[in-house]
Amino acid sequence: MIPSFCLLLCWLALPLQGLEILDPEEVEYIRSNATATVGGSVTLDCGSTMPTIFIWGFTKPGTENNVAVAYNYGQGPKLQSQSSRLGHMQVPVNTSALVIEELQRDAEGMYTCQALYDTDNGAKITFYFTRLDVEDD
């Protein structure tokens, strides 16, 4: 799964050619927590404005393996096949939020949205980390 994630990042890098990244010290990190129940639904936010490009990743507790579950590189959101084991996922139109319905117990873990905003002053990168706890009904 790691090679496919690396391939995805390389593929997404193509539209970024010539894009100037701001000082790495200006990268923003935002952390939050969410709780939902098995069979229910949850919405995980990736900022209040739509980024130019975003990648949603998932890390299962006790592992360091971050797996891409959804992304948008400017041509509409795409879901990865492995996302189905976490529940029914979708990225609503004109948002970068990740909605998971029919939530599975396996959906518990850390979700990371890597958001790139193309601004007049260069690219701004924000990482949104959401720890999701899934409780039994």
UniProtKB/TrEMBL annotation:
Residues 24-126 form the Ig-like domain. SUPFAM superfamilies: Immunoglobulin. InterPro entries: Ig-like_dom, Ig-like_dom_sf, Ig-like_fold, Ig_sub, Ig_V-set. SMART domains: IG. Residues 1-18 form the signal peptide. Keywords: Signal. Coiled coil: none annotated. It comes from the Eukaryota. This is Ig-like domain-containing protein. It comes from Zoarces viviparus. The lineage of its organism: Eukaryota, Metazoa, Chordata, Craniata, Vertebrata.
